[in-house]
């Protein structure tokens, strides 16, 4: 499994552990140099968003991957975690609907989180 796919798998598992909702993975390798994957999820409350952010950071750090940049703040309506090969977006439900990243990045290929397995 390549590094970016492994990172995406770890991030998705971390989001699932904390009951992140509607987790989507978008492969953007063919359309952008920003990253290989966007991972998008939402939480239901400030405390759940904090838990999602903390768990993703903890699991990826534990696997040896460094956070390059964090935008937004815990408890905010949108937190972006940039790990280089992957970018994780964690929203509250209303802002996820408003920004609709899935539509903006529709030229990417959506991958089911469950399908991020070793080849």
Can you walk through the features of this model?
This protein is 36% helix and 27% strand. The protein has helices spanning 3-17, 46-62, 93-99, 101-104; strands spanning 21-27, 37-43, 69-71, 78-82, 86-92, 109-111. Helix 1 (3-17) packs antiparallel against helix 2. The chain contains four helices and six strands. It is globular and about 35 Å long. Strands 3-4-5-2-1-6 form a six-stranded mixed β-sheet. The chain is an alpha+beta fold and 119 residues long.
First-last Cα distance: 6 Å
Shape type: globular
Number of strands: 6
Strand arrangement within the widest β-sheet reads 3-4-5-2-1-6
| Annotated CATH homologous superfamily | Beta Polymerase, domain 2
Please outline the major beta sheet.
6 strands, mixed
- The helicity comes to 25-40%
CATH architecture, by name, is 2-Layer Sandwich
Mean pLDDT: 92
Structural class: alpha+beta
Strand proportion, as a percent range, falls in 25-35%
Rg estimate, integer Å: 13 Å
In DSSP terms (H or I, runs of 4 or more residues), the helix count works out at 4
**Order of H and E elements:** HEEHEEEHHE
Question: How many domains, in number, for the residues?
Answer: 1
Please write the CATH class name: Alpha Beta
Low-confidence stretches: none
């Amino acid at each position: 499994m390549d590094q970016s796919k492994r990172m995406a798998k770890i991030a998705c598992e971390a989001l699932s552990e904390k009951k992140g909702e509607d987790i989507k993975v978008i492969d953007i390798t063919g359309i952008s140099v920003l990253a290989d994957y966007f991972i998008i999820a939402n939480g239901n409350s400030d405390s759940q968003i904090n838990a999602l952010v903390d768990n993703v950071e903890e699991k990826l750090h534990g696997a040896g991957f460094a956070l390059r940049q964090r935008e937004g703040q815990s408890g905010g309506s949108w937190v972006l975690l940039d790990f280089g090969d992957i970018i994780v977006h964690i929203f509250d439900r209303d802002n996820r609907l408003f920004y609709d990243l899935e539509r903006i990045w529709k030229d990417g290929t959506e991958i089911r989180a469950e399908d991020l397995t070793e080849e």
